[in-house]
Amino acid sequence: MQVKIDTGVRRLGVDPSQAVNALQRIARTPGVALTGIFSHLASAEELDSAFTIAQVDMLNAAIDAARIEGAPLRHIAASAAAILWPQTRLDMVRFGIALYGLWPSKQTHAAAPAELTLEPALSFESRIAAVRKIEAGTAVGYGGTFRAPRPRRVGVVPFGYADGIPRALSNRGALALSAKRCPIGGRGCMDMRILDCGSTNARPGDRAVLMGRDGDVSISADDWADWADTINYEIVARLPAGLNRIYED
Q1: Topology of the domain comprising 2-111
Q2: What interhelical angle do 50-66 and 16-28 show, nearest 10?
Q3: Residue 56 dihedral angles phi and psi, to the nearest 5°
Q4: Is beta strand 36-38 parallel, antiparallel or unpaired with respect to 2-4?
Q5: Domain map of the chain by residue range?
Q6: Could you tell me if 176 and 193 are in contact, meaning their C-beta atoms sit under 8 angstroms apart?
Q7: Which of 80, 113, 149, 190: disulfide with 44, CB 3.0–4.6 Å?
Q8: pLDDT in tens, 96-118
Q9: Domain covering 124-237 in this structure, CATH number
Q10: What count of other Cβ atoms lies within 10 Å of the Cβ of residue 101?
Q11: What is the pLDDT of residues 25-59, one digit of tens each?
Q12: Residue-level pLDDT at 233
């Protein structure tokens, strides 16, 4: 088993004042193998945070004081800490958002070593379900919050907030269609989005890229996060488990 020590997040884990006793008791328990001792950093993305080092020191102090035989693995660093704070890597690291090829934050990206690059591993695609022509001034979607400034062609993509697209992407954001960014028009629906197809020759069945690359145009989880005023963690975490997934080498 692995034991968590709460060094500062105040969420889960053994209190540091009780850690030595708890670790020793667990290590003596018959049938229990103590294989790891870990914690969770509270502010690893803050580049001048003395608290990060204090947390690492607190974890190490508790482990050293417990004197557990067998050298259980020590770990405290997730993606941001592993990138920015070499001293937090200990025996192993817990990569999460970096496995998607996404930066934990803009600050982490800016401060990371120049030779380190991350390439987004996730793409998210759909198909145009319908295309229609509308006249200038025509209201689109619930509440009519979008009105065509001139005659337009709009397309319907069968993905909505039930499929992980934030409703905050109402009249905000874009999808890639025919290697062009096409703005989202109108309020987000439960299972559909309406696009301003612009100058494309979009037809039903055409590929629409919600996240990924189409020609020279890319749409990223970071774009979605900026449009929805959230973080990329939330964007990728809210994609439903039931989505059809294709894994490529």
Answers
A1: TIM Barrel (3.20.20)
A2: 40
A3: -60, -45
A4: parallel
A5: 2-111, 124-237
A6: no
A7: 80
A8: 999 999 999 999 999 999 999 99
A9: 2.40.37.10
A10: 14
A11: 999 999 999 999 999 999 988 877 889 999 999 99
A12: 96
